[in-house]
Amino acid sequence: MNPQLAGRLAKLDIHGMRDLVLHLPLRYEDETRVTAIEVARAGFPAQVEGEVLSCEVQLRPRRQLVARIADASGSLVARWLNFYPSQQKQLTVGSRVRLFGEVRGGFFGDEMVHPRVKPVAAGEGLPEALTPVYPTTAGVGQATLRKLIDRALKTVPLDDLLPEPIRRQLDLPGFAEAIRSLHHPAPDADAYSLENRETPGWRRIKFEELLVQQLSLRRAYNARRARGAIALAPRGRLPRALVEALPFALTGAQARAGAEIAADLACAHPMQRLLQGDVGSGKTIVAALAMLQAAENGWQSVLMAPTEILAEQHYRKLAAWLAPLGLEVAWLSGSRKKREREAELERLKSGELLLAVGTHALIEDPVTLPRLALAVVDEQHRFGVRQRLALRDKGEHGQHPHMLMMSATPIPRTLAMTHYADLDVSVLDELPPGRTPILTKLVSEARRKEVVERVRAACQGGRQAYWVCPLIEESEALQLKTAVETYEALAAALPELKVGLVHGRLKPAEKSATMAAFSAGELQVLVATTVIEVGVDVPNASLMVIEHAERFGLAQLHQLRGRVGRGSAESVCILIYAQPLSETGRARLKVIYEHTDGFAIAREDLRIRGPGEFVGARQSGLPLLRYADLERDAELIKAARELAERLLTEAPVVADRLMARWLGGREALLRA
């Protein structure tokens, strides 16, 4: 294979013959029959065969190749807007050709635009199977892929690696039979079931894909448990002192998660735990208790957050909670004065400071943490695998730090069973008492003035309001312009109120000053881009307005809504939307209007978006499922999970061969 073709195939994640076998069709075309031109139906693909009556290059209205083909029943026009001289040669007058394409009504009768052409002899036989159409990339034609895949099917062993009892129990065909039925389905195969991935062949491939994913995740899990970490005994004095000093009692869920984490930290292998809980369920206090367990053993811990605003929020909370216990927290952010930052870095390096909070500034080179035993990563899906690894490698004592990842985007159970099976999961499934339910209202853009009046009334009643500007993916500059314009319009419409503005382009110090002024009640209205999505905690804010809500994802809408309802006042979230709504936009707004439970929202989100986007930002090196569907194939996941455990203990060689078939040498899955 020439290097140029190999490079193009690599874009399709094809690196060898085995990968070609598992590069399965997107859809199929039926070239097993010829349709008479007269009965070919407009709007449907068909294959016709006939003689070329005429063929010429026309220059008006634009340069195009136009041919007329006829059989005994009638004739049609074939038209190519982009063509090569070789195509023109295939269509010499009097030659016989087969055309495959969609028939449509044209100005001069029926026509096909850009049909596929194949010169044939009279009476030449037809293919005996449906023609596969594969996912492809620029420079790799279908004919090339078909040739390569057919060669791979002849040379790669298609051994059946699944135990016979499992195949019988799940009613699965053999691997070779399944693969051949998908690359070359029989002419009488049900095209609908094939394209919807509902045939026995597809079921076999999906099960094997899920099984390999489970194998790689369980391997990662087992490999991690074989590594060494500092065992942090749960002495309990500092955590107990913090709990007793808090102005609130821990919820049952917080106490349970805290105990699970404390038990993990006491082990001599690194914890890898995901703490997930809805917006406002109190994850920070659980993280603080874990950090205290490290501190009372004389070891360091860090908390890393994706944005400066969120990191500063965590720092302020931790500093206030821990100062009475005689513990100081280092604050590492890009915005701090150089001298202050250097002094703090020195104290961390000497081991004098045991706790640090920061953004990804924490993983930059100058930061030395010689006694790092615990790393807490908030909104973990926002960080890539390299960033998490860099944090893990900060420990200089030859041991891996314990990792606690926190997420306020709840993960549906099927997703946790597949993409997160290498983590232990703790769930905060109850909100602290005193949280008021948030009322959600959908309002059309035409009623914008009423919303402004609602903001006025809330602020005159002593409350505060957020006004979030739309997400404009194409341009950060556009988003900024919108935020500035909205700020100016609201300041003019509400002259008696103090309105502030915060966005991603502000200097960190300006951002902090604006947020501090809003927290202190000096500003009544805060106009913001999505920088306030996570971590902002102002109990007096009871009104959230989100403009162009249809442009936001469900997780973002739920996060933003969670910025209110943090005090005792009744809170309202107003979603302003613009018509016309897309199908997806309408579905999202319906879900956010009907549900307040983050787990229910996450399930619906998975259904609307599919798993790719949901976990894409893990950047984990883990292959996302290409063929299995988490909702439709949920019952296969459980069976794949159980079999993976069995194979790893009873038949590791079979597990190795399965993984080699699907992952080649790319098992970069012992992940951060």
UniProtKB/TrEMBL annotation:
EC number in record: 5.6.2.4
Residue ranges annotated for the Helicase ATP-binding domain, each copy included: 264-428
Catalytic activity, as annotated: ATP + H2O = ADP + phosphate + H(+); Couples ATP hydrolysis with the unwinding of duplex DNA by translocating in the 3'-5' direction
GO annotation, biological process: DNA recombination; DNA repair
Keywords: ATP-binding, DNA damage, DNA recombination, DNA repair, DNA-binding, Helicase, Hydrolase, Isomerase, Nucleotide-binding
GO molecular function, one term: ATP binding
SUPFAM superfamilies: Nucleic acid-binding proteins, P-loop containing nucleoside triphosphate hydrolases
Domain of life: Bacteria
NCBIfam families in the record: PRK10917.1-1, PRK10917.1-3, PRK10917.1-4, PRK10917.2-2, recG
Biological role stated in the UniProt entry: Plays a critical role in recombination and DNA repair. Helps process Holliday junction intermediates to mature products by catalyzing branch migration. Has replication fork regression activity, unwinds stalled or blocked replication forks to make a HJ that can be resolved. Has a DNA unwinding activity characteristic of a DNA helicase with 3'-5' polarity.
The name this protein goes by in its record: ATP-dependent DNA helicase RecG
Naturally occurring in which organism (per UniProt): Azoarcus indigens
